[in-house]
């Protein structure tokens, strides 16, 4: 049995060794992505230029990552996997841990403390408590209304941030930057809108709103690196490579990109030392990435889930999937984006094809297909409505929605199979509730489309809804390949 990774058992090179004891950053949502992305840029920034940028790692509820992180003296590994080979890096950049659900008051006090200059977050699309129809904070939803009624112990990240900001103002904690690293359109603006609307709905001390406006910034950012979930195979390979057991290694592709708006209220690490790009065109980069990569990713996942492909490369390796994605990219997505200056879309697409074919990484279809009710909102309505307003049917976007419905909310009597069953869908109960009593596939689809998952303009577009229903019917009666062929030939 090998020993556990720790500073006593591992004396090889680490990334970020100079991380100081005083953390200047706090990260909400210590899952895999942050540990293979922002943490790496921060480690490289400190290795090059120093700075008080150690990170407080905050888990939302699960103790799994934080307990192992603290137990391993904050060391963990990143296993980079690509067709070019593999490498493992040991990271040392986190300095404290907290669990938001158990240490809520402590968390808010930590965010309010003057040493913390930046709060980064990967709390998933779900964490923003946004109403899918209005795009506003879901103030009347169960989670936010419970938090507003109990300001001492909010459960949502948005409530926790709002409470912490009030404490920071009261305690003279100084300016703060809140940097969303989630896959959201205008991530900074979205985070700002949710926090602002929360603060407008709660009691705040005199002068607070002026301070908030002047002292708290929310830069937009485009984040990109495919980071799958950790498997036993990840742990086994890291054990072979390091000779010690890391309980929480992170697999990742080689590619990594971070484009950030340089709008930091209280300084920042020299992330450019790790390759981050500071740009005034971040929203254009966000759209490129969210549509071309993430939107296509969802289509690959649903087509894969319905055709027995358990990984993204296995799904993308099928000719019909590749054809649908090519059509989606060139006909439905690219014309919907004002590209950043100097950006070469075909080179980007060629790179995407390569990344989606990474069998060594083996990203799970079920991971990418999870949380669809929230992700499709970023990936479907705007480009679909653009084409519909031009009198054209966005066939592949309709296929994506049909695939999502067939996988996570299948009409009665249709079994989409085990890969679809492994997709996590937070709206599963709501989907079941809205579809109760649907007498036909068409009625089932109409009830979902009008059930509060999409903005009004798309939900009430009869032709689009009808097309989605036809494609679901074909998936059920003839299979996903025929549905894809129908969408391609239309
Ligand atoms: N994994 C990737 O390839 C990747 C790439 C780019 C961006 N992202 C972004 O990062 C997010 C997290 O991805 P990951 O790979 O770290 O996933 P993960 O499953 O490893 O971790 C998810 C994290 O989100 C937190 N979380 C989930 N729901 C939450 C909620 N309602 N409130 C607060 N926190 C919540 C969890 O506590 C956990 O820390 C994604 O949703 C996406 O927006 C991921
Ligand atoms: O992270 P999500 O859940 O928003 O989307 C799933 C994938 O598309 C996503 O994780 C990509 O792997 C990532 O965005 C690549 O940078």
TrEMBL record:
<dbReference type="Pfam" id="PF08125">
    <property type="entry name" value="Mannitol_dh_C"/>
</dbReference>
<dbReference type="InterPro" id="IPR013131">
    <property type="entry name" value="Mannitol_DH_N"/>
</dbReference>
<keyword id="KW-0560">Oxidoreductase</keyword>
<dbReference type="Pfam" id="PF01232">
    <property type="entry name" value="Mannitol_dh"/>
</dbReference>
<feature type="domain" description="Mannitol dehydrogenase N-terminal">
    <location>
        <begin position="25"/>
        <end position="272"/>
    </location>
</feature>
<dbReference type="InterPro" id="IPR008927">
    <property type="entry name" value="6-PGluconate_DH-like_C_sf"/>
</dbReference>
<dbReference type="InterPro" id="IPR050988">
    <property type="entry name" value="Mannitol_DH/Oxidoreductase"/>
</dbReference>
<dbReference type="InterPro" id="IPR000669">
    <property type="entry name" value="Mannitol_DH"/>
</dbReference>
<dbReference type="GO" id="GO:0019594">
    <property type="term" value="P:mannitol metabolic process"/>
</dbReference>
<keyword id="KW-0520">NAD</keyword>
<feature type="domain" description="Mannitol dehydrogenase C-terminal">
    <location>
        <begin position="282"/>
        <end position="407"/>
    </location>
</feature>
<comment type="similarity">
    <text>Belongs to the mannitol dehydrogenase family.</text>
</comment>
<dbReference type="InterPro" id="IPR023027">
    <property type="entry name" value="Mannitol_DH_CS"/>
</dbReference>
<dbReference type="InterPro" id="IPR013328">
    <property type="entry name" value="6PGD_dom2"/>
</dbReference>
<dbReference type="InterPro" id="IPR013118">
    <property type="entry name" value="Mannitol_DH_C"/>
</dbReference>
<dbReference type="InterPro" id="IPR036291">
    <property type="entry name" value="NAD(P)-bd_dom_sf"/>
</dbReference>
<dbReference type="GO" id="GO:0008926">
    <property type="term" value="F:mannitol-1-phosphate 5-dehydrogenase activity"/>
</dbReference>
<protein>
    <recommendedName>
        <fullName>Mannitol-1-phosphate 5-dehydrogenase</fullName>
        <ecNumber>1.1.1.17</ecNumber>
    </recommendedName>
</protein>
């Amino acid at each position: 049995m090998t020993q556990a990774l720790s500073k006593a058992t591992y004396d090889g090179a680490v990334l970020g060794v100079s991380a100081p004891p005083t953390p200047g950053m706090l990260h909400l949502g210590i899952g895999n992505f942050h540990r293979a992305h922002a943490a790496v840029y921060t480690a490289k920034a400190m290795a090059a230029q120093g700075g008080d940028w150690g990170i407080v790692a905050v888990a939302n509820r699960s103790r799994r990552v934080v307990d192992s992180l603290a137990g391993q003296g904050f060391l963990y590994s990143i296993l980079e996997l690509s067709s070019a080979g593999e490498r493992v890096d040991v990271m040392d950049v986190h300095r404290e841990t907290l669990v938001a659900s158990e240490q809520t008051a402590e968390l808010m006090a930590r965010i309010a403390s003057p040493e913390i200059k930046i709060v980064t977050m990967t709390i998933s699309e779900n964490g923003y408590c946004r109403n899918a129809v209005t795009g506003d904070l879901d103030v009347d939803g169960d989670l936010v209304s419970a938090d507003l009624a109990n300001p001492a112990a909010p459960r949502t990240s948005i409530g926790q941030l709002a409470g912490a900001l009030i404490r920071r103002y009261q305690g003279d904690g100084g300016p703060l930057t809140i940097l969303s690293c989630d896959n959201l359109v205008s991530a900074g603006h979205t985070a700002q809108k949710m926090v602002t609307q929360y603060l407008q709905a709660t009691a705040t001390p005199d002068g607070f709103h002026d301070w908030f406006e002047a002292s708290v910034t929310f830069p937009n950012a485009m984040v990109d690196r495919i980071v799958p979930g950790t498997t036993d195979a990840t742990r086994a390979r890291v054990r072979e490579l390091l000779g010690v057991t890391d309980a929480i290694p992170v697999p990742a592709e080689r590619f990594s990109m971070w484009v950030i708006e340089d709008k930091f209220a209280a300084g920042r690490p020299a992330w450019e030392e790790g390759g981050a790009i500071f740009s005034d065109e971040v929203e254009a980069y966000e759209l490129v990435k969210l549509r071309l990569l993430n939107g296509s990713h969802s289509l690959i996942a649903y087509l894969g889930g319905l055709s027995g492909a358990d990984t993204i490369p296995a799904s993308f390796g099928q000719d019909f999937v590749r054809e649908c994605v090519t059509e989606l990219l060139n006909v439905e997505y690219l014309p919907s984006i004002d590209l950043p200056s100097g950006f070469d879309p075909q080179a980007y697409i060629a790179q995407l094809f390569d990344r989606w074919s990474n069998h060594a990484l083996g990203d799970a279809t079920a991971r990418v297909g999870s949380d669809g009710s929230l992700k499709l909102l970023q990936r479907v309505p705007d480009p679909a409505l653009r084409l519909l307003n031009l009198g054209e049917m966005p066939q592949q976007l309709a296929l994506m929605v049909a695939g999502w419905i067939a996988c996570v909310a299948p009409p009665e009597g249709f079994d989409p199979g085990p890969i679809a069953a492994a997709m996590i869908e937070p709206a599963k109960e709501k989907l079941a509730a809205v579809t109760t009593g649907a007498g036909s596939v068409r009625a089932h689809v109409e009830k979902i489309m009008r059930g509060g998952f999409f903005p009004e303009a798309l939900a009430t577009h009869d032709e689009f809804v009808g097309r989605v229903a036809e494609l679901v019917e074909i998936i059920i009666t003839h299979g996903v390949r025929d549905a894809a062929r129908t969408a391609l030939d239309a």
